[in-house]
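Thread: quick sanity check before group meeting

JM: Hey all, I'm pulling together slides for Thursday and realized we never actually wrote out the predicted structure for the chain we discussed last week. Dropping the sequence here so it's in one place. If anyone has concerns about the input, flag it before I start.
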Amino acid sequence: MEEGVAPDTVAVMQPAGHKRPYEVWVMYQKKPKIIVISAWRYPGISPVRAAVPIPADVLAELIELGVVKYAD
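JM (edit): ok, ran it. Output follows.
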């Protein structure tokens, strides 16, 4: 999950493929309801970019629940 290239959007990815790995990406906007802006298939594995910022209280709760092991 990362910030989308368009204003007020989020991009999410799901890895797929075994012999030839690829990723399925979706960019969406969450207004009163979710609006899909774009979807595409990325061949290979995309480079890691900055993660979407998570508020400190939410991150602390995720660590406490064991969903996240640690935070940088």
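AS: nice. The longest strand covers residues 34-43. The chain has a mean pLDDT of 85.
JM: adding both to the slides.
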